[in-house]
Amino acid sequence: MFDYSINGVSIGLVRDTRGKDSTKECPIKWRVTYRRKQVYYPFSLYLTPDDWDLLQKNTRKPSIKENRDSLQIYFDSVIKKHIKELAETDNFTFDALNVRLSRAIVNTVNSAFENTIEEQNEAGKVGNANVYKDTLHSIEAYAGKNIQFNAVTIKWLVNYQKYLEGKSISYATMGMRYRAIRAILNLAIKNNDVKESAYPFGKGKFEIPSGSGREMALTVEEVRRIAAYECPTDTLAMCRDLWLFSFYGNGVNFGDMCRFKWGDVENGEIYFYRKKTFNNTKDKKEIIAPILPPMQAIIDRWSNPNTGKNVFIFPFCNECTTEEQLKHAIHNILRLSNKQIKLVTKALELPDISTYNARHSYATILAKMRVPESYIAEQLGHANKTVTQNYFDSYTKEERITYNSMLL
Prior knowledge:
single chain; alpha+beta; 3 domains; DNA polymerase, domain 1
């Protein structure tokens, strides 16, 4: 029904279950194959396994028929049309197809989010992709899976805020979701999908709510209590230890930590670059984290054997051979650790925290101990330095051990 081939280019409609729970709703995408390369193009439609089967069986169920009709229109008038025109003239490339589809694919707010999520994941920006993904799920729960650009008005944004307030969503989280929506609309204006006169954000229009948020940093004593907690399961102990490793290791994020290899260890310290900012800065600043005794104990408990420089220190990415697999594995351990660390703090009657709190706590505790700001910035790997910080030389190993040991 939605299959087509011409001059070595083929199109197929698939239910994309990659990295997802296949028993639940999954996105429907167009899969284009050319010279053994496959690229997936979103359609802003999610189906359960049962509805996917009904779609393929040509059922007359009204909701399925509506989806099939929409797919058929798009198939005939957009994706098949452009592929046919390119392939018939031997000019087909994925870049050429992307140019032609760039405006046609983004026909709703939902599909614009889907495109951005794909782009962020392909760029290795998993955190950003997750923010857009969470926002998409939220606005779809609020307004459905076919949100037109002209529907996002000031009134729509105000009512969405009331919806979020009714679900007790924090203003900090609201801010992230609204900024994601704003970014999508800014891109839509750039692509002429939205008129500037209809832009709903800004002074005198809708202003993104802000909140001071909760205190994100723990105290040294609270961290000690977490470290001393007798975990009832190995899974809980492992996730707790990973949180502590992040805290003691310069507040390293889980994505970088899971990528550590034995070759990154030299003279009792770990050398690494922040993946999040590596491609956004001209000067690549290597971060050096001294391996404090608690970190070494965690390595001894949970690491892979040191059998070579290219072996991961921690085993979570052992089977990964592609960047996509790495991101998926990191996302899984991050999600598990966030759930498990909350069980620890709940048992200890401490504030509800996540993996991010390890980084924030590292910086805040050292700052309160009057450790030089330039040292904290260097150890966190901040991409932007103040002019004053440029006058400081890099810190010695002895200084790194002295300052980081203040956390113990």
